[in-house]
Write a structure and sequence with these properties.
The structure holds two protein chains of two kinds. By secondary structure, chain A is mostly helical. Chain A is built from nine helices and no strands. Chain B is mainly α. Chain B is built from five helices and no strands. The chains are: A mainly alpha, B mainly alpha.
Chain lengths: 182, 148
Amino acid sequence: MYEYSDKELLDLFSDNEKRNYAFNLIVRKYQEKLYWHIRKIVIRHDDADDILQNTFVKVWKGLDRFRHDSKLYTWLYRIATNESLTFLKQQKTKFLLPLVDYENYLNETLESDEYFNGDEIQRKLQKAILCLPEKQRIVFNLKYFEEMKYDDMSEVLNTSVGALKASYHHAVKKIENYFNED
Amino acid sequence: MKDFNLNLDELKGKSKNPYFVPDNYFNELPTRIQNKIMSESKKQIWGIHIFQKVASQLALGFMIVLFATTAIISVDFILSNRTQKINDGFFSRETEIDASEFSEEHFINMLLNDKRESLKTKEIETKHYINYLVNENIDYCLLMNEMH
């Protein structure tokens, strides 16, 4: 199947008659990437599913106002990231959990997750990642798993490239320490 | 650190994504998203439709309330002005002060002054008549006889 470029998709979307078709193509093109990005932040499949749907509803509502000075895919990642962070914030407020307890909560979620089939090392790596602060965790995931360029990451997280590099470096070091401790 | 980076790279290459999703999840997702968008826009349209239906009634109700409020405020304003004229605190207080200043002694003095003043006036008038009769050379007895 032919994969449209982002520009082609946006041109198609601007045509009122092909609007729904174009949006459907955008969903099909990015659903998996965004899902895995969200899933690694919130861990639970059901939460990731809700957040992903909300993300695409927001994309549908905001695509008319999308300015072409940023890339479509970084814009989508930015919405997904913000939705995920808002969700985490709501969860903390809902359960009145301090930061450390919330890390434990995510670890327990990982332990009981029926949609996780990694081996022992994979599980350990995921646990080490969950010990990182939220923003550092997102930087690590985007760089390590999704191999996103720092320039694109800078657009997604609205942070300088230098700060992102430092953040990734610290994240790797913390994970290394986590592995060496055991 | 470099060694550990190598280990991380090895780890990434060893196994695929440890998370997975229910069967057919990604095939069904676009339809579910479309349905969600449809239901959200239906809600929005329903809200607009309801508003359009009740807009005229709301406007009429608002006008009635506005008219009633204006009428009540006007009547209240007029009544308060009238009351102010009748029960003006300043005037009633002044009247009370004036009345309290009068006493029996004041009244008697006032009457006596009045009597003295009338006697003085009569005296002046008599003098005036005598001067007139003298100046005109009129005989008073003759005048009296003719008058009677």
